[in-house]
Amino acid sequence: SKYDWPGKQRSYLFGIGGEGEKEATPGHLFFWVSSRTDPFAGVSVYGSKAVNDGKTHEVAVVFEAGKSVRLFVDGFEDTAARVIGKVPAAIAISNRGLAIGAGYSGSLQAEAHRFEGSLTKVRLYDRALGGEFGFGMESEEIRQLQIALRKLDQAQRAGSQEAAAVPVMKERSEPRETFIHVRGSFLNRGDKVAPAVPAVFATAGEGQPKNRLEFARWLVDGKNPLVARVVVNRFWQGYFGHGLVRTPDDFGSQGAPPTHPDLLDWLAAEFVDSGWDMKHINRLIVTSATYRQSARITSTHRERDAKNLRLSRMPRVRLPAEQIRDQALAVSGLLKPSTGGPSVFPLQPEHYWEDRDLPGKWIPSSGEDRYRKSLYTYWRRMALHPTMELLDAPARAVCVAKRNTANLPTQALITLNAPVFVKSAEHLARRILEEAEDDDARLGLAFRLTLSRQPDAAERPKFQSFIDTQLIRYTLSSTPELSAWKSLAAVLLNLDETITRP
């Protein structure tokens, strides 16, 4: 540096950071050069590459009077550097001495803006360099290739942005006038009204949302008392079967009041303070003492808290339809965890669509697509997959805030006979036979995979007797052992404990 702006002794300065200038980026190179000591008359250059990553870098600035200023990092020219101003034909002569590793601030001593780090091989030249940087004579060729590559990247980004564009609703240039309909009649107009949220939610002096974008921002504003409560209530409902507010679709005066209002408020505040971190809130719930309670119902529970309003126990919650299917596929090893892609068509009864007079034809997927997550199953609003339908998955004709759960004999027929569960039982049996050597170890493995526990003293002999009976039954088959363990796997996948949490 030979540059002292407070002392009105400008000349040139090459450094990192830009000393707080709004155009500068911390950790990036910058270069200032002026043809006058005061006021500034010259050019400012700001690099596009960070050099504060803890690694050693070779950096350089090349000034060619009246023509150009170029920055180099590790032998490559920073062609994306921003150049502000006109390159001067000469450099002002400052009365400040050449300072290396520090700068000036209104003093003859270079004691300001100290460089933090190590400087080696510092050189100054009295001529403008060019080809000496980079790779000798090839540096110009490399520079041209870099320019071409940058143009190609820009074109690709522009193309991807164009492909990703989707039509959106647009506000009218002149908003439509809206009036209160007296007694509900659109022919009888009352007072003219403007967009606004209910006054009970508006803070004094707060600007009211005037359009959909402003309303969306208002919804997720930390001051909004409703959204965070609704979301954490849905989380709670997923784990306990019921939310702290048992009417998840109605938080108004006609809905049920929260059973634990302080807990709901705290969870909502924690959700907002965490930056709307869903994993954080879910982790809080599942590691709480409330979640880790026993599900056993005692006579005291029946007398004092029959509906579990006081959260005196962990309720038993049957898994959703999608999780029941995915769990069977997962424990058997059939589930394909790949993400994305088009919908898939698992096996379903023949002529199912035709019997419902639906257009098109259901052509079952082949290979691994049959065993993808239920999320990817093709779904029509009025004809969802029959396995999902019988396990209480709702039709998508309307929004459902909470699923209804039934306990019907036909559901057991699904988990015993539907193709996906039969195939899962077969693969689970193969897995058990391959991963364990004797019946005792195999039975323990089967329980661990399906129930996440070992069989107790009363269960083990009963299941062993079942295996022995099945071996006799399938004596004449080609694979008696596999058939016997397949029957056991089907029983385990159908147990109430398997499809219920906890």
**Major β-sheet, in short?**
4 strands, antiparallel
Q: How many beta-strand runs?
A: 11
Shape: elongated
User: In angstroms, what separates the terminal alpha carbons?
Assistant: 70 Å
As a whole number of angstroms, the C-alpha radius of gyration is: 36 Å
User: What is the helical fraction, as a range of percent?
Assistant: 25-40%
What strand order characterises the main sheet? 1-2-3-7
Structural class: alpha+beta
Low-confidence spans: pLDDT under 50, at least 5 residues? none
Topology as a string of helices (H) and strands (E): EEEEEEEHEEHHHHHEHHHHHHHHE
Q: Helical element count? A: 14
Describe the structure concisely.
This protein is an alpha+beta fold.
Q: What does the secondary structure layout of this molecule look like, with pairings?
A:
Blueprint: E1 12-16, E2 28-34, E3 42-50, E4 59-64, E5 68-73, E6 76-77, E7 82-85, H1 139-164, E8 178-181, E9 189-193, H2 212-219, H3 227-240, H4 261-273, H5 278-286, H6 299-304, E10 317-318, H7 321-332, H8 352-355, H9 386-390, H10 409-417, H11 419-435, H12 439-451, H13 459-473, H14 480-494, E11 500-501
Antiparallel strand pairs: 1-2, 2-3, 3-7, 4-5, 5-6, 8-9, 10-11
Helix pairs in contact: 3-4, 3-5, 7-11, 10-11, 11-12, 11-14, 13-14
Provide an overview of this structure:
Helix content is 33%, strand content 10%. Strand 8 and strand 9 form a beta hairpin. The protein is elongated. The model has no long low-confidence stretch (mean pLDDT 87). Helix 13 packs across helix 14. Strands 1-2-3-7 form a 4-stranded antiparallel β-sheet, with no helix packed on it. The chain has a 3-stranded antiparallel β-sheet with strand order 4-5-6, covered by helices on one side. The chain is an alpha+beta fold and 502 residues long. The protein starts with 11 loop residues before the first strand and ends with a strand. The chain has 14 helices and 11 strands.
